[in-house]
Write a structure and sequence with these properties.
This is Helix-turn-helix domain-containing protein. It is a single chain. By secondary structure, this protein is an alpha+beta fold. It has one domain. Helix content is 40%, strand content 16%. It has three helices and three strands, in the order βααββα. Strands 1-3-2 form a three-stranded antiparallel sheet. A hairpin with a 2-residue loop joins β2 and β3. The longest helix is centred in the middle third of the chain and has 10 residues. The relative contact order is 0.19.
Length: 67
């Protein structure tokens, strides 16, 4: 059974984003939902990361409308 919660390093592998880019997305509220059980711990749910990536699908470049 796969782990429900994953660390930012795993999110970076799944999405191809850097850890810095993920931190910036957390700061601006534009990335996948995340959890902070402690002051220094950041966790994500694997299925929410995948859903977030899938929600960014586009039909063509330059299009602002999402599928």
């Amino acid at each position: 059974m796969e782990k429900e919660f994953i660390q930012p390093e795993t999110v970076a592998e799944i999405t191809g984003l850097s850890l810095g880019a993920l931190a910036q997305l957390r700061y601006t509220g534009q990335g996948p939902r995340f959890y902070k059980p402690t002051k220094r711990t950041v966790l994500y749910k694997r299925h929410e990361v995948i859903e977030w990536v899938e929600s960014t699908a586009r039909m063509r470049t330059g299009a602002e409308s999402y599928a």
